[in-house]
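Quick log. Single chain, no ligands specified.
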Amino acid sequence: MAHRVSTIRLGVKTRVFHLGDYRRATVGPGQDVPDDYFFVNGEDISDLGDCEISTEALDDASASSVLLRQKILRKCREDIYHFFDKEKGQIAIYDAVNPLAAGRRVLAKEFAKHDVQTLFIESACDDVRIIEENVRSVKISSPDYVGWTSDEAVQHYLARITAKIPHFETMSEPELNYIKMINAGERLSVNNCSFGYLSHRIVFYLLNLHIKSRHTYFARAGNPSKGDSYKLDASLAEQGIDYARKMGDTLIKHREEERQALIDRGGPDAPLKSLTIWTSPRRRTVETAHYLQEKGYRVRQRSQMSQLNPGVCEKMSERRIRLEYPDEVQKHEADPYHHRYPRAESYHDLAVRLEPIILELEREQNDLLIIAHESVLRVLYGYLMACNATDIPTLSFPRNEIIEIIPASYNNQAKRIHIPDLPDEIIPASPEDILIPVAPSGVVSPMNGLGSPMSGTQSPMEGHRSPDTGYTTPKEPGSGTHLLVERALRGV
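-> predicted structure:
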């Protein structure tokens, strides 16, 4: 959940601070923590920070385990403060279990001293089926269980949950901001003391989540008959119609091969999940979907998915843009995600326009094929793959590939599906399809099997890298507010 919440708002500088990553970095790879490390009392003591440790609180956890947790927690919070104060961060997602009300109150007060508003998110579950499915599909792929058998990992993690349940205090503190999600979205309970705009957006986002797995496919529209123009809504050329047929056949064949491979591995002989197709209302995207629509697939037109508006720079050469708009080019190269040319949209503008699509994407339970202009695919891919926002304008989608996004526990995976026998002249992806210069990033993505184009940041310890799942977008000093999203966990 932490990683999905981190991608809620493109362009808001967000980072996940997962306490488990700090634990693994402190203890060392392949090393085990003390047997009493996950006992609730020890966990609650560390969440109280520098408060005095009482003898009664140590009944379940040894003093050494409590001190170890305090050391790990201190480093995590130092990084959170550094993120807010030095890196101009806006949302920090503190991914940790905070089972007791007293610890949560102290935590909120501590962050308030640093002018950080706290929002707690509790995921509570009493449905045994959901718990076991979640553990098998998510938790056992954690780095904690590398080399474990599936059954051993499930048994161990369920034991960790069982140890916490008798001591867990569900959120009911009237003075704290919190969202309580029950049975994976079956019900939501909200306590709003001082919600701001981002807090309300998080609530709305959580209302749209589900835990059913589905695959998302990205494909570019076929090439138009009268050149690639924003203003001219041209139909497909003959090559574009041929591309649409080959793209459709390739996707149908790939899905059937994936189904058969699952059966061969011992999976159920079940029919394929339904495939829904989304396009923009522009002719070439609609016509690219015609071949699949004639085969009985459902197609929906989404007006928000129209391509990025290039403004006055449409069809201008890079040389001419640099001559006529040198100041704009300098701004664009400094921040290609937020900058907009005269009368144009920025990628951030496009991301805001696509927010209803992102929420609908989260609600969609069928497999989904999105046929769109490259600018739209960049933003949606950036959302699903947790890309750095500054890299979104340079993501590349050659026309001879379908990109498949495969849901995974901690980071989604991207897979290339090759479309054969296309003429070379229609294949290459352009920097932005509108000849506007972009700052070189050195990142070629999407890439086969890549969870995220980002290589990570130095965290949680020197020498240890963990994925930066947020968006590190340049913002003006003092812009926005600091929001810490704190996670409490019960059951799942």
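The first strand starts at residue 14 and ends at 18.
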